[in-house]
Design brief:
Length: about 375
């Protein structure tokens, strides 16, 4: 877990970390362990922002940052390591500057790239503790599988809407992420924060807890969240911890390290129904004044940001409720004898809505999903 001998602390470090040093459970020896320790932070977004700042402030000696993105205005509702002054600049720049301002003795290693199959082992093998701040399933599985293969603790966090999750996956002592979630869900059932939204402070809470776990692991104090999953409900403000068990047949952590073959995780759709239509083709049909109906299943707030002329706003939850209540009869605004184009922001919710329409008796041959949703519609304001 740490390089020995632990380095000594400078006078400035003794002053800066004074509040740690007076903690009887922590003291100078744990602080030296932190300084000898290293952490790899994958993603400098909502989770990575607070985690990066607290790991730097706590005195972790060496921190690797993996991120390829630039700062966008929509990030600032939750990604507090960045700000307006650095819009359009790499996130790694703003995070590094803030972290060094908190702890000038920190060694930061910049990895301005995405974590991918080709670089995962090379990056993860260099650090004691890995912090997963990603928001997509392929990277999350890659982080997990690589950590299992290399015997590294993976401090996992996840957030969506008003909820958060946290665990430490260390397959040497407990389950890995795949023991609990062997494969990613079908793509339309795997909403991300851009689609489903997130209260900005949620990743702040979970990111801080990830930093706490990483600090505990590096300093060697407390009981890490291995074999347990924290479920945080922000609306009720409840924290529940459930035990999670190792799967003796897990396709990754039941194997010996050399037998674990890292693979790309491909997100697949549940068997799609209906057809698809591209934005240009839909525009062509509109220009030709073909009779068709366009249903936009986004939320009313999203609808206000831009819409296809003539489209009907019918948020997905309301559409599903109306179809259930209609009990097999066609909805008055959606006659069954016309082509119906279903649109959402990215094409995921609309794909799920088409399944509901088919289940309610609509002909799949007359249903078309707008490919890539409104994000591909010309002139649409994306957010
Ligand atoms: Zn496993």
């Amino acid at each position: 877990m740490r390089a020995d001998p632990a380095p000594s602390l400078s006078d400035a470090e003794l002053r800066r970390f004074g509040r740690h040093l007076v903690l009887p459970e922590f003291g100078i020896e744990r602080q030296r362990r932190l300084k000898a320790g290293s952490a790899l932070l994958i993603g400098l977004g909502g989770l990575g922002s607070p985690a990066a700042l607290y790991l730097a402030a706590a005195g972790v000696g060496r921190i690797g940052l993996v991120d390829a993105d630039v700062v966008e205005e929509t990030n600032l509702q939750r990604q507090i390591a960045h700000g307006y002054a650095v819009l359009g600049k790499p996130k790694i720049d703003s995070a590094e500057a803030r972290m060094l301002d908190l702890n000038p003795d920190l060694v930061i290693e910049r990895h301005q790239m995405r974590l991918e199959l080709e670089n995962a082992v090379g990056l993860i093998s260099q650090y004691d503790v890995i912090i997963d701040g990603t928001d997509n399933f392929p990277t999350r599985y890659l982080v997990n599988d690589t950590c299992v293969k290399l015997g590294k603790p993976n401090v996992f966090g996840g957030v969506l809407r008003f909820d958060g999750q946290l665990s430490v996956f260390d397959a040497r002592y407990g389950p890995c992420y795949r023991c609990i979630f062997p494969e990613p869900p079908p793509i339309e059932f795997a909403p991300n924060c851009a689609e489903a939204g997130v209260l900005g402070v949620m990743p702040g809470v979970i990111g801080c807890l990830q930093a706490t776990e990483a600090i505990k692991l590096l300093a060697g104090i407390g009981t890490p969240m291995i074999g347990r999953m924290l479920i945080y409900d922000g609306l009720d403000l409840s924290f529940n911890t459930m035990r999670i068990a190792k799967d003796s047949d897990c396709r990754v952590c039941s194997k010996a390290s050399e037998d674990i073959v890292l693979t790309e995780t491909v997100m697949i759709c549940a068997a799609p129904v209906g057809g698809t239509i591209r934005a240009e083709a839909l525009q062509g049909r509109l220009d030709a004044q073909e009779p068709l109906i366009i249903v936009d299943v986004r939320s009313p707030d999203e609808w206000l940001t831009g819409r296809i002329p003539g489209s009907i706003g019918f948020p997905k939850p309301e559409l599903e409720k109306a179809l259930a209540q209609a009990n097999g009869a066609p909805l008055s605004c959606l006659p069954m004898d016309q082509d119906i184009i279903v649109a959402c922001q990215s094409g995921m919710r609309s794909s799920a809505s088409i399944k509901f329409l088919v289940a309610a008796g609509y002909d799949p041959k007359r249903l078309f999903n707008l490919e890539q949703g409104m994000s591909a519609w010309p002139g649409h304001v994306t957010f």
